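Sequence in, structure out.
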Amino acid sequence: MRGGNLLQYGTVEEVLSKPIPGFVAEFVGVNVLEGTVVEVKNGLTVIDVRGLKVHSMDQAMPGEKVRVMVRPENIIISRIPLESSARNTFRGKIECIERCGHLVWLTIDVNGLSLRGLLTPNSCKALGLRVGDNVYVSFKAANVRLAR
């Protein structure tokens, strides 16, 4: 709800995993990026987001404009590229580190895009992360939701 108006209806899981872009997505903390579908290959949709090729299991048609949504807790942050099944791995620079209770929010600049990710304080300390550090962000195609 916002201003007395119901913006989205659904179970908690539905709203958190597929929030409508705009106020609801921002309110629940989802990263929302604008892009254009460039191809569908081997069951994956490939979206161009400012030169980054983002893979999603959600279906869309080539040429279609979409909003790409990734939850912060689905982003893996590492010092080196990981060898994993995650289809999306990008290099970025830490812009901001904010401790909020039992979580640490990181804002990472990736090719001019800001992505927010979450870590525990112990993980942040173990990685020795500081503002200005280069890191890698990775997330699975299954965790990339598309909205029109």
